[in-house]
Amino acid sequence: MARIAGVNIPTNKRVEIALTYIHGIGRTSAKGICDRLNIPGERRVNELTDAEVIQIRETIDSDFLVEGDLRREVAMNVKRLMDLGCYRGLRHRRGLPVRGQRTSTNARTRKGKAKPIAGKKK
User: Fold this and answer.
1) What is the reported pLDDT for 29?
2) Burial, 94: exposed, middle or buried (Cβ in 10 Å; 0-12, 13-18, 19+)?
3) Cβ distance 39 to 15 under 8 Å?
4) Phi, psi (5° rounding) for residue 29?
5) How far apart are the C-alpha atoms of 33 and 52, rounded to whole Å?
6) Residue 13 near residue 44, CB atoms below 8 Å
7) pLDDT for residue 3 is more than 90
8) Which of 14, 41, 98, 107 sits CB 3.0–4.6 Å from 103 for a disulfide?
9) pLDDT one-digit tens code per residue, 23-46
10) First and final CA of the chain: distance in angstroms?
11) Residue 59: partners with Cβ closer than 8 Å, 6 or more residues away
């Protein structure tokens, strides 16, 4: 099992797909890494040599912000908005949708399970 950026990536998957298990690397970034290192897309992780795994690891370390560092930066950005007291920060603080979605209906992912209101019957 290859370990890249502190994540055990699955051995029986294609390299492009397996790299997406790392937080901060999506399909496009994974494809770019494989193209840059001349690794064919249909290769499996267990078919990679140690040298190729080391090349992938070094490329990710040098060119991408991944895992803990990325999570920390995102958390700091949200915290900054909340400390400023701007509209987006207030929405984060209250646990409501931040990007202009409607809240009279839907928005259940952000608001949580519906709470019944007493005396709301006809």
Assistant:
1) 93
2) exposed
3) yes
4) -65, -40
5) 11
6) yes
7) no
8) 107
9) 999 999 999 999 999 999 888 999
10) 61
11) 33, 36, 37
Whole-number Å distance between alpha carbons of 44 and 16? 9
Sequence-ordered alpha helix ranges (H) in 3-66: 15-19, 27-36, 50-63
Measure the CA–CA gap between 91 and 114, rounded to whole angstroms.
18
Show the tokens assigned to 90.
Answer: 């207030």
Which residues lie closer than 8 Å to 34 by C-beta, 6 or more apart? 15, 16, 19, 40, 41
pLDDT by residue (tens digit) across 69-102?
999 999 999 999 999 999 999 999 999 999 999 9
Which string of b and e fits 8-31 if b means at least 16 CB within 10 Å?
A: ebeeeebbbebbbebbbbeeebbe
Percent of the chain having pLDDT more than 70? 98
